[in-house]
What does this fold into?
Amino acid sequence: MSSVSTAYTAAHGHPLAHDGLVARQQRRRRWAVGIRAAVVAALALALVVGAIVVRDLARTSGAPVPLAEIDPAAATSAGESGEGEGEPGASAPSDPSSPAGAESPLGAGEASARAPAAPASVAVHVVGQVTSPGVVEVAAGARVIDAITAAGGLTETADAGAVNLARPVVDGEQIYVPVPGEVIPAQAAGPATGSTPGAPAPGTAAGTSGSGAAINLNTADAAALDTLPGIGPAIAGRIIDWREAHGGFAAVDDLLEVSGIGPAVLTSIRDLVTV
It folds into this structure.
């Protein structure tokens, strides 16, 4: 029996030694199983974290966060690196007409807000031969005919040729519509029968500096004659027609030969015209 044990020990080692080897192998297997479980757990945790990150990115993808809120220093460096290259972050070109580094005291929006707005309408006093004399309100840039229409229109006795119906109205002015031969009152003789802003004033010939020189009946054009009190476009045309038909005016009193000019109108313009 001992010889058999001896032979077995010689061939395979002592049985107790085999038990130790088996124990070591079992311990190695347990360690290997533990490492695999840890790796699997780590991969599962990484997948969960990745899913959470992807979900959060999907929720915030429609609302980009400004760079300055994430890292002000990075935003500053990005602005400096993009300067002068036309990329986002580059500073706006400065106005060459302003000092370097100077800023406008008012923003464009604030400056426009402080600028006076143009009036949308104007008030005009229409009197004389109109259906409903009084103060009327018309749109800014309206013509005399618009103001007369707002006052009910002309009456049957009105001398429409004595008023320049095409002239733009002026806020606060008085428009006087006379009867034929009536002298227009002095307070209405200016804007009501005068020319538009920038045109010769009553009593000055076209092309003069407005120094008060009398209008020459033999050389004045229709625009200059239209500036005279009581002389509208129609009567100005008749004056020119009469002048061409008779070879000119020999005297101011010859105006009485023109249709639509009576003694009253002649008196009102006598000192403003010459021959």
